[in-house]
Amino acid sequence: MNTETLIPRIMKVNTEEMLMDNIYKPFLMEVKEIISETADTLTFKLQFKDPEVSKNFNFKAGQFAEYSVFGEGECTFCIASSPTRLDFIECSFKKYGKVTSALARLNEGDTIGFRGPYGNYFPVEEMKGKNVLFIAGGIGLAPVRCVIDNVLDLRNDFKNITIVYGARTVADLVYKEELKQWQVREDVKTVITVDPGGETPDWKGEIGFVPAVVEKLAPASQNTVAIVCGPPIMIKYTMPVLTKLGFNDDDMITTLENRMKCGIGKCGRCNIGNVYVCKDGPVFTYTQMKELPLEF
Ligand code: FES
To answer: What pTM value is reported for the model?
Structure first.
């Protein structure tokens, strides 16, 4: 498969050119704040220790990074904060293995390693002048939140903005503060849903799975880009709903994570077919996704 022709709309970044010496050498970052999102999900607010690095650092919405705990290893997450807000880098992660558990044991003031940004990104520039529909499930809101805040910081450049976010239960909703802020904005339509049975007695949002809620909402597909991130099962059932609503495959964009390790196309762990998710992605249009041997 020729990835140059496979990925015509989303620019690729040559990450190796961005690194001067040892490509695996991390920058040092201080954990400035730890936010508990759910019982097993945390958000770190990070700041570069070297002011010069901080001054020169830049990235685009959708790119990811490698975060390391010294003596424990590295793990990969998207950058969850917006490139329009560079005072801090934020990442969110679920505790599920050795490195994320080690990260979760850290305290504010501790130091971690950071290398990146890596990968391609959402075509925010191309989205200007269009409606944007954000659809996210669970911790999949992390990469979407980066684009939402990016778009909201440039609000006048976009038409209607709709956010549909779902989690299994009320307790599983992440970024509760941001959700409230988006909900009170008159220039954003925000719909939050939990799976049937996941509601609390005082829940005022929707109850239902994300694809069904999107279908009921029936957002306009004309001149609209849909950004969809979440569990594979959510993506699997949401994409056909968008197709039914009239969205083009090229205007349905998602981000994939696939056992990434080195982040720079060296280890081969992230390949799907002939594509390396770390270098050719993680952002893919539905047109591109359909060419990949994905197991949903
Ligand atoms: S993560 Fe190593 S090649 Fe992609």
So the answer is: 0.92
Atom of ligand 1 nearest to the CA of 266: 3
Mutate to test the pocket of ligand 1, among 78, 267, 272, 274 (most ligand atoms within 8 A of CB): 267
Residue whose C-alpha is closest to residue 263's, from 6, 19, 92: 19
Q: How far is the CA of 77 from the centre of ligand 1 (A)?
A: 13
Contacts of 231 (CB under 8 A, 6+ apart): 137, 138, 140
Q: Assess contact for 255 and 282: CB atoms under 8 A.
A: yes
92 CA to centre of ligand 1 in angstroms: 21
User: What is each CA distance from 89 to 115, 185, 289, in whole angstroms?
Assistant: 12, 24, 29
Residue 254 pLDDT? 96
Average pLDDT over residues 36-65: 97
Q: Which residues are within 8 A (CB) of 208 and not within 5 positions of it... i.e. 6 or more apart?
A: 193, 195, 196, 216
Burial of 125 (0-12, 13-18, 19+ CB in 10 A): exposed
Structure confidence by residue, pLDDT tens digits, 102-118 = 999 999 999 999 999 99
Q: How far is the CA of 270 from the centre of ligand 1 (A)?
A: 5
Instruction: List pLDDT tens digits, range 160-203.
Output: 999 999 999 999 999 999 999 999 999 999 999 999 999 999 99
